[in-house]
Write a structure and sequence with these properties.
- The complex is a heterodimer of chains A (159) and B (189).
- Helix content of chain A is 67%, strand content 3%.
- Chain A contains seven helices and two strands, in the order βαβαααααα.
- In chain A, helix 3 runs antiparallel to helix 4, helix 3 packs antiparallel against helix 6 and helix 4 packs antiparallel against helix 5.
- With 189 residues, chain B is of the alpha/beta class.
- In chain B, 32% of the residues lie in helices and 19% in strands.
- Chain B is built from six helices and nine strands; from the N terminus they run E-E-H-E-H-E-H-E-H-E-H-E-E-E-H.
- In chain B, the strands form two sheets. In chain B, strands 3-2-4-5-6 form a five-stranded parallel β-sheet, sandwiched between helices. In chain B, strands 7-8 form a two-stranded antiparallel sheet.
- In chain B, strand 5, helix 4 and strand 6 form a beta-alpha-beta unit.
- The chains are: A mainly alpha (159), B alpha/beta (189).
- The interface between A and B is large, with 52 and 72 residues.
- Strand 1 of chain A pairs antiparallel with strand 7 of chain B.
Chain lengths: 159, 189
């Protein structure tokens, strides 16, 4: 990085030549619609792989409970973060909300493998497993809303 | 209806989650891209970049062992970076401002918050094609100009324009490079 005055560098825009604006074709509304349809098609496998992710989360949590190793919390965070990112994309905002609650909680208690943190992690992992097992996609249904509200309460308890 | 043809653009997708990689690749292929490579973390992506001249990188923020911020830092300022100027779109599920600010300050061009949609991804690609920002090489920053809007500045603008004649202060390598090396990368020599 420069040590003197900040330097402004005009970078030639080669992308304009490589990605020309076509009068017909190219990325138009129809192409975007096709892409959204392709995403929806990909989402047909979502429940299967999300359940596999939940099973992996469960195994990580079991290891955490057995070892108390704070490194396991970082693994759990990364996987929960992935689940959070995918949930809403594939119609499961409930997964996003539950995983987000877990991520926020683990961020606040980074590296703290205390009994309270382990208990809160367990509750979230069980909730994610339940959501996927019972296909609780509607975050507004009374049962799911109560579950998510419960997770937020657990996450708010100081460790 | 007119639209950009993405067929000749090289994309590198970096995400440690295979489903997210599949999602981004599916969108890019459906939008007409032919050359989409992927990598499962920042270290792999950096290796890939040495053999694959990516035009745009789509990268996740939270990855292990090398996350999106570390990867971007390597691309922008690593002495052995194949292309410090390559545009980077960062996918983020983080809503905390400090992560986004941290990512901005290592030289991210565009952010895309999850959930990812084709429309959202294309709008970032379009922005990179249509509104490229100049790069700033400063004491603590190397990356696209963080000023996105042309707002009149009341004070002196301390930034020196390099334009087609890049002049680096003596003893300075922006990302560890000489002015000649930067000019060469920009195709000015």
């Amino acid at each position: 990085m420069a040590g003197g005055k900040p330097l402004l560098i005009e970078v030639p825009n080669t992308l304009r030549q490589k990605a020309p604006l076509l009068k017909h074709g190219g990325v138009d509304a129809a192409a975007l619609l096709r892409a959204e349809q392709a995403v929806a098609e990909l989402g047909k496998g979502y429940l299967e792989w999300a359940r596999a992710d939940a099973a992996a989360l469960e195994a990580m949590t079991a290891r955490l409970e057995a070892s108390g190793d704070p490194k396991a919390l970082a693994e759990i965070f990364l996987l929960a973060h992935d689940m959070k990112g995918q949930g809403t994309t594939f119609g499961y905002k409930t997964v996003t909300l539950a995983a987000d609650s877990l991520c926020r909680y683990l961020e606040r208690h980074e590296g703290e493998a205390t009994p309270e943190v382990l208990a809160a992690t367990r509750v979230h992992v069980d909730a994610l497993t339940l959501i996927l097992a019972e296909q609780l996609a509607d975050e507004a249904s009374p049962r799911t809303a109560a579950l998510l509200a419960g997770l937020n309460k657990v996450a708010a308890i100081p460790a | 209806m007119a639209g950009y043809n993405l067929e000749r653009l090289n994309f590198l997708v970096v995400d440690d989650n295979k489903h997210m990689r599949a999602l981004v690749k599916t969108i890019l292929y459906t939008l007409g891209s032919k050359n989409v490579h992927d990598a499962s973390d920042g270290a792999d992506a950096f290796k890939e970049l040495r053999v694959f001249p990516a035009d745009i990188i789509v990268c996740d923020l939270a990855m292990s062992p090398l996350d999106g911020i570390d990867f971007t830092r390597m691309v922008r300022t690593g002495k052995d970076s194949p292309n410090p100027f390559v545009p980077i779109i960062m996918l983020t599920g983080h809503t905390e401002a400090h992560r986004v600010i941290e990512a901005r300050d290592v030289g991210i061009n565009e952010f895309l918050a999850k959930p990812i949609s084709a429309k959202g991804l294309f709008s970032r690609i379009k922005s990179i094609i249509e509104k490229p920002r100049p790069f700033i090489s400063a004491k603590n920053y190397f990356g696209p100009d963080r000023r996105r809007h042309q707002i009149p500045h009341k004070g002196n603008d301390r930034r020196k324009t390099a334009g087609a004649n890049v002049k680096m202060p003596s003893g300075v390598g922006s990302p560890g490079m000489s002015a000649e090396e930067i000019q060469s990368l920009l195709g000015m020599t």
